[in-house]
Structures are given as C-alpha cells and as structure tokens.
C-alpha cells in the first residue's frame, strides 16, 4: 500500500489519496456458502476464510463470479463482505467484487468495502446493454468509478460469463489512470496477456511492501498499530538516515518502497504457468477455492525459476481445473470444496446440483490435490 497521488471527485470538494497494492501470487475466488434452503450460511464463510488464511495464498477475492454475486441481494453482499473482513488474516490482501451494471451502484458497494478496510475493488465490465457497450462507454464507466473510488480499482474482464471482452486498446488507455492498478483477465488467452503486458510496460508506480516483499494491507497496519502502540517506523529511521517515523514505539513492522507496473492477474488455472511466463503477476483462480495448495506450488516453483517443477505440476493440474471449473462450473467447484475439507454446499437456482456420476467425476479429478 503506497500513497501516490490524489484524485478529485468531479463536482465535489473531497479528495481521495490513492493507494497502490501489490497483487502478486495466488488469490482464491471465494464461493458463497448457502444452506439447503438457499439462505447464506455465514458461519461457513468464517470456516472457509479462516482455513484459507492459514495457507500461503496472497489474498482472497470476495463476490467475484465464483461467489455467485449476481445471485445475492445488496444486503447479502454487504454481509458477506463484512464477515469475510472480520475473519481474514490481516496480512492477506482482500479484493472486493463491487462491479454492477451502473457506476453509481458500483461506487456504493465500493465505499462500503472501503469502510471495512478492503484493499482493492474488482469491477467487472457492465454488459447487460451489450449493443451500447462501445469502447467510449466502457472508458466513461471505468473513469467515473476510478475518479470517485476510495479503493484502487482492478478492471475485470470475464468473457465466459459476460460475453464481452474488454478490448486491449481500452485496457491500455485505462491503465494510465492513477487509481486503476491492474486487471483480472479471465479469457484464458495467453497471447492477449502477453500483448497486454507489453502495452502497459511503460506504467510505473511506487508501492509499500514489508521486509519479504509482500503487500502491506490496511488491516495489517491497523493490527500492528493496535497491538504495538503504533510501532511502525520508516526504513529511513531504521537506517539512521533521518527518515520521518510514523510512530515512536519500538519497531515491529518494517516497510520499504518498491516499483511495480500495471498488474495483470489471470483467471484461468489451466494456463497459469504460461500466463506467468507471459508477464502476469499472479492469478485469481476458482480452482484455488478447493485446491489452493497446488496453485500456489506452481506459482512458487515459477517464482524460484524451477520451470521443470512448475511445468510438471501445471500439466498435472490443468485437466482437473479445466474439467471442474470451465466445463462443470460452480456446482462442481463447491463439491470439490466439500471433498477437500472446505464447505462448498449447494448453489442457488438456476444452478443445479451435481448428479451422482458428476460427483464421482469431481472426486476423481481432485483426488490428487488434497489439502
């Protein structure tokens, strides 16, 4: 989290200070658990989020496509955000899916997520009025949201669900906005990822990280300040160079700056390694909901430049991810979670439960990726 610039809200007198967040690593796309009668099972959110918090994932995405966000009421979406934020470990980056068909509704949920100390807003492309969703409409929509958003914004293009693919030229134009820090690219098109990374290579921003180059979240800062009497200090003071201290108590959390670019996260697990090699910084994966370990292992092996190991793990995981996520969808993802120690549970209609044969198929696909 770093303060880079200020954006004035058009027509208003308030200003937002822009915070850039490191988006590197694996982010499970969380599901929303339900009782058999369709009510949201909030206790199971606590169960799942607590367990994810104990894994080496970078963070979690709440109310994305895998979270059945379009099936929830506004009140339910807000409660899902609240419960998740209360349980998640402070060092995990929290990304809130706040996209709606209008800019004003998107901003309302984004402001609520900001009040809960989420780190980033994930804003999907509006698509219901698809014939009118020309490049100029998407540019206007995202600029209006980014200008007013109290959270840094991630673009979200997910053609399998919206039937709309955000054009590369629009992404490149929006990447220059100081409050748009990245994109979740879910088409599975590695060539587009490579072209996108090349097109935005000129964008550089400063971000704050901890000693091991991981993100410094708002909740992490709040937790350290509360527990240690505001004990965070600057690197300059620790080095004796006269830097300004954030507080005067003994140092507990050391923060330093690093430079990053526009961050591209991908959403297709079966092309994870190829996307990382094409320049993606990480991934938001539905397959990481039931199987975060294998997804992280591929990322970690790639990060360590052990490409042989990364490729072997990718080739083992890809067929399962493609079958469970791309072909069978959310009911299969949730059943794989049940099989792997998380709570998946039922979906809301019109999503149908799996047949007995489909359940056996899911068990066969994920048996090698137990957690």
Summarize the structure.
With 371 residues, this protein is of the alpha/beta class. The protein is built from 14 helices and 13 strands.
Give a written overview of the molecule.
This protein is an alpha/beta fold and 371 residues long. It is 41% helix and 17% strand. The strands form 3 sheets. The chain has an 8-stranded parallel β-sheet with strand order 3-13-12-8-7-6-5-4. The chain has a 3-stranded mixed β-sheet with strand order 9-11-10. Strands 1-2 form a two-stranded antiparallel sheet. It is globular and about 50 Å long.
Descriptors:
single chain, 371 residues, alpha/beta, TIM Barrel, 13 strands
Number of domains: 2
Rg calc? 20 Å
Output mean pLDDT: 89
Largest sheet: 8 strands, parallel
CATH topological fold name of the largest domain: TIM Barrel
Give the DSSP E fraction (strand runs of 2 or more residues): 15-25%
N-to-C CA distance? 31 Å
User: So, CATH architecture of the largest domain?
Assistant: Alpha-Beta Barrel
Output the CATH homologous superfamily of the largest domain.
Aldolase class I
Question: What is the β-strand count?
Answer: 13
| Share of helical residues | 40-55%
Secondary-structure blueprint:
Elements: E1 2-8, E2 15-20, E3 25-28, H1 42-53, E4 59-62, H2 74-87, E5 93-97, H3 103-115, E6 120-124, H4 135-148, E7 153-157, H5 159-162, H6 168-175, E8 180-185, H7 190-199, E9 205-209, H8 218-228, E10 233-234, H9 235-238, E11 254-260, E12 263-266, H10 272-277, E13 282-285, H11 292-303, H12 307-328, H13 330-339, H14 356-366
